[in-house]
Known about the structure:
Two copies of one chain form a homodimer.
Chain A: H1 3-8, E1 14-16, H2 25-33, E2 38-41, H3 47-60, E3 65-70, H4 76-85, E4 90-94, H5 102-107, E5 111-116, H6 119-127, E6 132-136, E7 142-143, H7 151-161, E8 166-169, H8 175-183, E9 188-191, H9 193-196, H10 205-213, E10 219-222, E11 229-232, H11 235-245, H12 250-257, H13 261-267, H14 291-310
Helix pairs in contact in A: 2-3, 3-4, 8-14
Amino acid sequence: xxxxxxxxxxxxxxxxxxxxxxxxxxxxxxxxxxxxxxxxxxxxxxxxxxxxxxxxxxxxxxxxxxxxxxxxxxxxxxxxxxxxxxxxxxxxxxxxxxxxxxxxxxxxxxxxxxxxxxxxxxxxxxxxxxxxxxxxxxxxxxxxxxxxxxxxxxxxxxxxxxxxxxxxxxxxxxxxxxxxxxxxxxxxxxxxxxxxxxxxxxxxxxxxxxxxxxxxxxxxxxxxxxxxxxxxxxxxxxxxxxxxxxxxxxxxxxxxxxxxxxxxxxxxxxxxxxxxxxxxxxxxxxxxxxxxxxxxxxxxxxxxxxxxxxxxxxxxxxxx
Amino acid sequence: xxxxxxxxxxxxxxxxxxxxxxxxxxxxxxxxxxxxxxxxxxxxxxxxxxxxxxxxxxxxxxxxxxxxxxxxxxxxxxxxxxxxxxxxxxxxxxxxxxxxxxxxxxxxxxxxxxxxxxxxxxxxxxxxxxxxxxxxxxxxxxxxxxxxxxxxxxxxxxxxxxxxxxxxxxxxxxxxxxxxxxxxxxxxxxxxxxxxxxxxxxxxxxxxxxxxxxxxxxxxxxxxxxxxxxxxxxxxxxxxxxxxxxxxxxxxxxxxxxxxxxxxxxxxxxxxxxxxxxxxxxxxxxxxxxxxxxxxxxxxxxxxxxxxxxxxxxxxxxxx
Lengths: 320, 320
């Protein structure tokens, strides 16, 4: 038990990141049923689809689950209305100001966590009185901070700056990494990539296969000047890099490359021309597994690494 | 005790990174006297200066110390000759192939560690039969890998790929981060930035003050296409960024900006026009301290965080 498991009423402080095109009701309910907190990724859903997934998740699990809402979503108010109407109890917001919806959600009895990548926004989260902060490092997949601060440095920085319950994200896909995040000051972890390659993930099999095949150096942050995003280096990635080096804006890129590239890559399985958002930790992922097995393995490794560390001693001794 | 403390015959598995302009005999011997392993940074020394520092370190400590040699050093053979003539017992090599000097050094009874930033070079290290591998993440100061793999993901990747004793570097300046590195599979840590801002560091006071003043986002990797290096964002940094964006080569940059910029910044204290190499962890460093106090604080925090983690339990329970 700690503040994160108490806050969300879950067994393990493992949050499944709400990812576009990967985390529908099947993944979210599977994670919740395995003892973690599943999140439905609202970012790639229209409001009706979003409502459908929430209703299906309610049927599929008796345990708490939540949703992720990127605040840059074009019709965000429609999504917020769905959350209220469907009586969702937990909302993770990202990509925007934590001040925008936190008090509104809390007035409706909803627990709110917000995703940040720097100390400045962690402080804004605390001012907005969020229930928990997700601090996401540079190694994470998808959209990312301009500061490029890694999980190893970001977690202690945020821990020092705020008192709120703290969830670490970025580079975490195993029990050892979960323990590392806790050693750095986090009280829970948000895991994306590892669950993107689960059986219950709604990602296309070809994208899951790409995750499994990835080695170190196969993902890279791009669009650093526009809106940083970590992608697998494929044909689409190199086109983006080329256009950005020529000074393209986000709007230019949409016009030049066409919209819907993330859907094409992650959901429809075009791993050449599609946009493939995944974290560096994909290099450590070698097998598509059932969600329950992933959660169990993480917790078993967490306990065994914790036990092994306990046996390491560096005693002071006088060596003259 | 573990493989790293046994290998180098030290109390604590704390290696002080051999940094240009910061780590002369005073810092290296202070770290060794405090129970870690001090390294004289050969990269910014001519062979005579290097010899002088080795001799001074021998006088200043009875404990093991070593040297760092970047293999791209222009007159590397002269430096190697000094190592042999002065009977240095431990050499950390970096910025080159581990196959170049490892067997030569080992024939002379010298222990060799090599610094890498990806799995490919970790495997080369093992083939070259180095005694230990330093895996350095993206958050580290100074020169850096092209893959941009962070410590959080690099350490488990290297741990999985090789059996050699493994030292983690990048983002580590505290006992919590040291414990995190060990949870990820490292057996020791190499710490640079924290020691650069020690009393015994030979860095200019103005550079030390810059380290202390740094916040998150104040360092950034630049020269990504030429030879990636993490610097504090100052006037020099922005000039480099501007020139690189115009397609400058490493040679162009030297010609355009003039040589000796690292000396100017880090040793002579010109924090505007000089090159300031430091890690992201500088954002967590707030005070110039004596080396012994730094080492003691790291070990005390290591033990206390380890103890606190031991008290966290997430027991399985049937919730129906």
